[in-house]
Structures are given as C-alpha cells and as structure tokens.
Amino acid sequence: MMDLPCVRWHEHVAQKWAGLDPELQEQFTYLREIDDVFKYALGLTTQDDVDFVQSISAEHSVQKDSDEAAKCRERGNSSFKTRNYTEAALHYSQGICFAPQSSEQLSLCYANRSAALCHLQDYQECLDDIDRALRNGYPSHLLHKLQDRRTLCLERLFVKAKEDDHSPASKNHEGPGRVKAPSVGPLTFGICPQAVVGSSVEKGRHLVAVERIVAGQEILADRPYSCVLIPGMEEVKGKGGRQGTGREVFGTECRRCHRCLAETLNPVPCEGCSYSRYCSTGCQQEAWEEHHRWECPLGADLMVMGVMSQLALRVTLKAGLKDIQMAREPIRGEQKKSVLSLVHHDSSDSKQSHQPDSSVLYYGDSYMSVFHLLHHMNQHSPRLCFLYAVTAATLYLKLSGTGPPPASWSRSKPSAAGIQSEHEPDEEGGDADWSSEQLGSAVLRHILQLRCNAQAIVTLQDTGAANSPVQSSREIRIATAIFPTLSLLNHSCCPNTSLMFSTGTSADPCGSDVSADAGENVAEHKHEARGVTVTVRAAKVITPGQEILHCYGPHSSRMVTQERQRLLHDQYYFLCRCEACSVQQEDEEEGVEDGGQQWPGAGGGPQESGLLCCKCKGLLKRSGDKREIMFLCSRSSCGHGMSSSEVSRRLQEIRVDLEKAVELMERERPGDWKNAASHLECSAVAIGSQYGEDSIELGRQLFKLAQLHFNGGARASALSVIPKARRLLCLHCGPHCHELQELKAMEDCLRG
Length: 752
Fold this sequence. Notes:
CATH architecture of the domain at 66-159: Alpha Horseshoe
Mean pLDDT: 79
Strand content: 5-15%
Number of helices: 24
CATH topology of the domain at 66-159: Serine Threonine Protein Phosphatase 5, Tetratricopeptide repeat
CATH superfamily of the domain at 66-159: Tetratricopeptide repeat domain
Structural class: alpha+beta
Number of strands: 19
Low-confidence stretches: 169-187, 238-246, 332-356, 411-431, 506-529, 590-607
Largest sheet: 4 strands, antiparallel
Radius of gyration: 28 Å
C-alpha cells in the first residue's frame, strides 16, 4: 500500500480524464471550491468505476480463510521446532487472524501460540491464549496439554511475584520475549508556556518563542487526530531460542497494533477481516467505534486507494457530520472568543483587532484544526485533482453500501457555544444516512490537505543479530498521521528542533526535563492520551522572538540547496528561503563540483565544507574555481590544503571504515570489537562533520561506540565516550530513552 492510489487505479482514472470532452476538462479545471470539485467528480463516477476497484481489490483479499489459517499454523510449527519462538508466535498470530470465528483452526492457533509465548516467558499472555483456545472449542483429547501449560505458567507467575516482593528493583522486569503493552497512565500534551501560536499572511499559523527555550527542553507534545499503519517488511530475529536457518520477514501490519502502533506478538484479531489486528481488546473496540466498523466491509478496496485516501476517510469518519458541519460554519460570536483564547498573541499585536481568518487560527487538537489546514487545491495539477476527486467519489459510493451511520451523525445546526461538539452514543438507525455530500467533500478536502500536512511516524528497527551486545538499527516509517498541533510548525532545512515518536507505551512526554523551567505548566490545554505521541524538543537554544521550526524531510546535511528547494516546492508549493538555504545558495551557485559532485555539509558560511582538517581538526574551507577546487584549513597556524580528489578518497576510506565496523560488530568476538571500535571512531568524525556535533546521528554513533568499548574491555575509552553520547541522546530523545538507561548501566558497571 503506497501513499497514492495503486498504479492500476491511477491509470484507470487517467484514461477517464483523457476520455473526457475538452469542454468538460476545462470546466473542471476552472472549479475553485472543493464542494464543486467533488460534486463534479461524483457526477462523472459510475458503477463501472466502483466495479473496477472491486476487481483490483480481489487480488488483496482480507476475508477469513480456514485453509490459509492452517498453512500459517504449519509454518509456525516449523519455526517452533527450530526454537525460534518469536517467529513461531507471529505465524500463529497470522493464523488467528485468518481463522473464522469459533473454528477449530482458531482454537488450535491460540493453543500453539500459547506454547510459543510460554517459552518466551510471557506467562500471563500464555494464560490468556489458553482461555481463548478453550472458548473456541479446543479438541477435548488435547486438553491435557493446555492444563499442564496452565499449571506451569501459574507456578512461574507465583515465583516471579515472590521475587518481586523481595526485590523492588525488579518489579518492572520483563521476560526476554515480552513486548510492552500500552500504558494505562494518562499522557498530557500541548504547547509549553515558553511558546505561543502566531499568525501572519506570509507564514500562516506558526509557533514562536516568547521566552528563552534551552536546548533539550520539550516544546510540545501532540497526538495524531488519526493515523494509518503502513505495511512494510521487518526482519524477525529469534528470541528465547536458536535462530532458524532462514530469517522470516513480516509486514508492519503483522507486528503492530493497527490503532496505537504498539509492537505485539499476541494481537487481538478483527472478527470481520483477516487484516486488522490490535494489541488489546481496548484498542480493538476503540478502532471499531471510531472507524473500523465502516472500513471493515470495504476491505482491500482501501489498499487500492492508498494510505492518504484511507487516512482522509478515517479523519472524516472520526469527525462525523456534526463536526464537519460545524467546521464549515463561519466563525462568529462565542466561537471567535473561544478560538482567540487559544491563540497567544502579544498584546501589542495590531492583528488582534481584525476579524479572525479561520485559516490562521489555532483550535487546539480538535477537528477544527485539521479542517482548516491549507489544502492548496489551486496548486495541484488538474489531472491530480481529478484523481483525488474521483477517488473520494468512489470511496463515498462504496461507503454508502456499508450500512447506516450512527444516529448521532444526523444533520443538525451546530451550537455556537463551543468549538467541538460532544458525540452522543453511537446508535445506528434513525434518520441518519450517507446522503450528505458534505462527507464526500470532506474526504476530498483531507486528501488534498494530506499532501502537504501528513506526517510520517518513524521508529528505530533493530538490524543486528538477535540478542547482540552491540545495538544496530535503522529508521523505518511505520505510519502516516495528521497531527493538529505539530502541523503549526513551519519548515527549515536546518531546524532548531528534533522530533521523537512513541507508540503504544511511553513515559510522560511532558515529564522531567533538562531545564527546571520546562517541567512547569505544559500548556493551557491538557488532555489525556494513550498510544501514539510525538514530542518536539529544542535542538539548540531558541531565543525570544525566534520561530520554532522543524524539517519536512530535505535537510541541509543530506542534500544540496537546489535539490531541497525543488523537492519542497514540488510537494509543499513554497520556495524555501530558510537560513540554511540563504547561506548556502551563493556557494552552490558557484558550482562546487568534482565530476558533478556537490558537497552538502553541516554548513556555516558560504565557503564552509562541513569537513575537518586531518592535521589540526580545524574547519576546511573551499577555494578556487570550478576547474580546480581546493580545501584549505581555516586556521592560519596550520594552512594545510587538500585537493578535491584527495577529499573524495578520504571520504571513501571513511565509508570503508564504517562497513568494516559493521562487519566486525556482527561477529561479536572481543578482538573484533576492538577493531570495530577503531573503524567506528573514524566514521564518527565524518558523521560529526556532515550532520553536526550536536546531531542525533552522531549521538547514535557514539552510543554504538560506547557499547563496543564496553564489550571490548576498553574501560577508559568507554568512560570517555559515554558522557558525549548521553548528552546528545538526552538532547534529542529526552531523559527517559532506553539508550540512556543502558549507558548508565554500563557506566555503573565500569565504575564498580
């Protein structure tokens, strides 16, 4: 499933556009209101289009299937025999999702998964699966297996409870195969008191510091209004036993809750389809009430339509007709006062006296904030607008056949007393139906908005061997979301913030901080949240009056200015003139090349290369013309120079050092750890030069280096690196990240 509709649907709609009479194309092109665009597309969408979606989605069936469940169970048995219990549990979970309700296959898959969980020391989860197997008709002649396993689990839990009573430090201990469950504690979120929401014609809504914000301080914590998990391949490492001969890969959809994105080995399946699954019955029920009761009948159709279309639909379903109608109403009276109370303008701001524009006001985390995000419809090409409009119209027609919406969706005049209405109990029936084209229009609006306002949710995935003493990881995208408060932040190619996502369970995102000031009143608007959150921290000191910015993707340390500006303009429709672009523009226009190569770096002044002198560690500066580029040390006491070809050769050596370090780390022999540390030290210099000495990239590299020194017995080297890694990880990830806990454990061990 990609962000945009699948290729076959894309081609189908493109042919539909090409087949339109030129006059109809011209009429569509000149439409300026989203309602008009949707109605026009709805009039052109036929049953043939709906049938075509059905024919494509047949290739991605999400129906229950006993035969497929049996195959998954057999694959799980094979993994179980090789003692790869994690892989086995995931295969059995696949079988559970495919198995029809109350079928023998369902009971067998639950029973087999309980065995894998028992070996992973997930005893309570094992007991839960035993109960599920029994409720679904587990064969009577095999009951003795479950009875013996139940007895074993109860004994182990009793022993563990006694150990916990005598060892308070072990109360939070988890078995080696355990996957954390969602936190039951409340998470507060909002904007810190040192920042306010401002608005201007040029920047729209944005966040500005009104007091000094120290590096590492939490600026805001937000939860998504809605999100959609993205299927993707994740390699599975064996835990609790020997690794199988071949490594299996499972999609993100198999390993994570489809609501809170928490990792889980024992998901609760949707009773209607084989695709959706959840970490708990709580997440299952919440998803059902909010959106899945309508998504489930659509099944694989949503995969054909793409992630953005599904997210747009999910936002619309969550809001409901009442909130959509309210968002469409002009701001007036009490609503205006309520909205303005959320926007912290300085009292000297003359704009306060003007009539507020709904597109530049901040509505907290309500649907109003999402609805009034800019959609840039007039910036999209007519062909792309037509694709989005026909997609929304087809979804609208499909949705009309899924059954009636809740009675609380009945059209009614919204009250002007508040911003967001409270939903009544969702009882189906009454006079509610899907006849209001406002719902379809809202889906189209959100599809258009998401092109510029969607946020990728990323997390670190382990890439090293199972139970490796040295952590190796890579960043992967697991979901796409819309964050009401995060969307306030504008872009910079060299931002003054860093983002950290948490899924399922996490510490309070507005908890203790490196600054004493940051722990006080986090925001005027506090809410309780579980599941997915994003925390924005200051990556450097932000002074009063400075805008708070984050990077939309193209970063000055990874990409040259022209390429960044092109990508940003193509997707977000603005020409970036941030500080990094302004500083680097002149230099890059001079054509700093070496066989066509440009040099993106940490970048400061126009001639800075982001590279350090190999003799004195001073900053190298570029000089010369396009024909002969030289890199000269900026320190007059050194004066060392290098040609561009020499720089290229040194960079290649650093790449080789990094590859050797990774190879040696995977062998996990003490001698190799020392050699790997030597190679990693060389690559850390390059990473610091490219990404900056305060970057998270350097922090993760230093964390890995500390692990290598620790495992290699290099006490002094480890104690030297640990504080540097700790500072950077705390700056970007906060004081509660698990890497900091590991660094503390290493330091305590080394200091005796």
